[in-house]
């Protein structure tokens, strides 16, 4: 049995006497068992591509151009798209074959809008919006019609844009542990900005106020050109980095860097957002789904990753163990897959040790 001391050491904590969890960590699970599960290495460096499928457009004839990310409630796909000065969120069935509804995102006071990688929690979609009039969040019911909220993110005093006037909100993720809304600065070479080393927390229960005490400070690595992020059900935060062309995995406890999964960048222009959904399509297990845009050909690429423990091509890749369930509570078996926008490919990644990213929130 792995001890608490060993588990703390895995996330870079030198435990004192008596052993205890740190009160200054960003967030906490409901039990010590969940905390120790969050200290299990998901081994993203061992994820490996397994398969792929390409689409020229989204179901219903919608353009794949400028897809911004993906999310799921465990039964449907939700896909944000920015096109011709407008932003949309489309809803599709589980097979990504039937269109079930769309929502046109309203423009801000300056007549601008940009929706980033979205998230969903308890039947509500969270849309991060960037515009000239400040950073906003729009909360949309999954009926694709009812707007619950459309408000500015504010600083820790409750006034003004937050935090610190930075270019944030290219993605959002709702923590299954504390219900806070997380995002980070975009950063990166393309915008001539420093990489991002902090995921900022905002509290929906306090008027979407910036809550720096719950920030996740990334340790051991940064994120450059951050395009998407999601929490899984076991205390891991996955972020796509376009400059580094990978999926970076951090601890939701203290921001410890677990490593990264390189994303095939062949013919790709821009890596976008991601989501977690345990699926088995065409005999390939998949859990992490990522989107990327290819310039000039109007197609989308969706890559699917497979975990070790899944059977790919009739070969058992390995024992279960490292990657665990989605924060949405969807599924108990998984493996990542990635999406490439402008070409919708489905490429699979084999991930040795399939267990620590699973788990219900």
Note the main attributes of this structure.
six-stranded mixed beta sheet; five-stranded antiparallel beta sheet; mainly beta; Neuraminidase; 361 residues
Radius of gyration: 19 Å
CATH architecture type: 6 Propeller
Number of helical segments? Answer: 2
Oligomer: single chain
Classify the helix fraction into a percent range.
under 10%
At CATH level 3, the topology is Neuraminidase
Task: Walk me through the structure.
- The protein is mainly β and 361 residues long.
- The protein has one domain (50-351): Neuraminidase (6 Propeller), CATH 2.120.10.
- Helices cover 4% and strands 37% of the residues.
- It is built from two helices and 25 strands.
- The protein has helices at residues 4-10, 32-37; strands at residues 48-52, 71-72, 76-83, 86-93, 99-104, 119-121, 124-129, 136-141, 147-152, 173-174, 181-184, 198-203, 209-210, 216-217, 226-231, 236-241, 246-251, 257-262, 270-281, 284-293, 300-307, 311-312, 315-316, 337-340, 346-351.
- Strands 1, 19, 20, 21, 24 and 25 form a six-stranded mixed beta sheet that branches. Strands 10, 11, 12, 13 and 14 form a five-stranded antiparallel beta sheet that branches. Strands 2-3-4-5 form a four-stranded antiparallel beta sheet, with no helix packed on it.
- A hairpin with a 5-residue loop joins strand 24 and strand 25.
- The longest helix has 7 residues, at 4-10.
- The model is unreliable at 304-350 and 352-361 (pLDDT under 50).
């Amino acid at each position: 049995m792995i001890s608490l001391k060993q588990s703390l050491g895995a996330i870079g904590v030198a435990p004192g006497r008596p052993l205890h969890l740190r009160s200054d960590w960003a967030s906490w699970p409901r039990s010590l068992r969940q905390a120790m599960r969050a200290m299990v290495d998901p081994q993203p460096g061992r994820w490996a591509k397994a398969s792929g499928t390409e689409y020229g457009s989204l179901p219903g004839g919608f353009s794949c151009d400028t897809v911004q990310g993906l999310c799921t409630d465990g039964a449907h796909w939700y896909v944000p798209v920015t096109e011709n000065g407008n932003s949309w969120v489309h809803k599709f069935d589980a097979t990504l074959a039937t269109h079930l509804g769309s929502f046109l995102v309203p423009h801000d006071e300056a007549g601008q809008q940009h929706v980033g990688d979205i998230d969903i929690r308890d039947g509500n979609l969270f849309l991060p919006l960037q515009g000239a009039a400040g950073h906003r969040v729009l909360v949309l019911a999954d009926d694709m019609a009812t707007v619950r909220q459309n408000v500015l993110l504010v600083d820790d005093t409750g006034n003004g844009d937050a935090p610190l006037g930075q270019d944030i909100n290219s993605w959002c993720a709702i923590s299954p542990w504390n219900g806070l809304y997380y995002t980070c600065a975009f950063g990166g070479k393309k915008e001539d900005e420093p990489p991002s080393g902090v995921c900022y927390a905002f509290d929906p229960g306090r008027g979407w106020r910036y809550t720096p005490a719950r920030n996740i400070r990334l340790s051991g690595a940064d994120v450059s050109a951050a395009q998407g992020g999601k929490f899984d059900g076991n205390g891991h935060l996955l972020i796509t980095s376009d400059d580094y062309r990978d999926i970076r995995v951090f601890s939701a406890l203290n921001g410890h860097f677990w490593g990264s999964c390189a994303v095939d960048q062949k013919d790709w222009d821009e890596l976008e957002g991601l989501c977690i959904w345990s699926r088995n399509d065409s005999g390939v297990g998949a859990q992490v789904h990522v989107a990327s845009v290819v310039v000039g050909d109007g197609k989308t690429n969706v890559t699917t990753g497979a975990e070790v423990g899944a059977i790919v091509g009739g070969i058992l890749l390995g024992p279960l163990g490292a990657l665990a369930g989605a924060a949405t509570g969807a599924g108990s078996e998984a493996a990542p897959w990635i999406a490439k926008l402008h070409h919708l490919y489905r490429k699979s990644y084999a991930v040795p040790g399939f267990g620590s990213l699973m788990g219900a929130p």
